[in-house]
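Researcher: I'm preparing a figure for a lab meeting and need a structural model of a single chain. I don't have an experimental structure, so a prediction will have to do for now. The sequence is pasted below. Please return the structure as tokens so I can convert it later.
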Amino acid sequence: MKINRHLLALSLGAALVCAPALGFSQPPTPSQDSGVKQDLKAAGHDAKDAAKDTGHAVKKGTTKAFDASKKGTEKAADKTKEGTEKAADKTKEGTEKAYHATAHGTKKVLTKTKDTTKGAVEGAKEGAKKPDSSKPD
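Model: Understood. Here is the structure written out token by token.
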């Protein structure tokens, strides 16, 4: 039994000593080397695709915001134009109303002034025709 143990220990020791030597003597497999390269390339492509997707999303969001802003600006401009037109119409109406009231008032004053002037002229004529009895000749 002792011999069996020694023989087993000897063969195990020889296997342990020779195994690393056999492992180092083999050239590295190309699949392992290119596997790392391939992983790095794949990671690079993934990063590139992610950047493109992000860029497209930003462009889409910016375009959407621009369109919404443009629409809001046009709506505000239309409302301002509409309000300006209403204000112009109201101003025109007020001006016409004031004009007509002024014209009517002016005609009324003119008529009264005419009547007063006519009355004064007629009174002066009557006064000129009648001799003044209070003055001695």
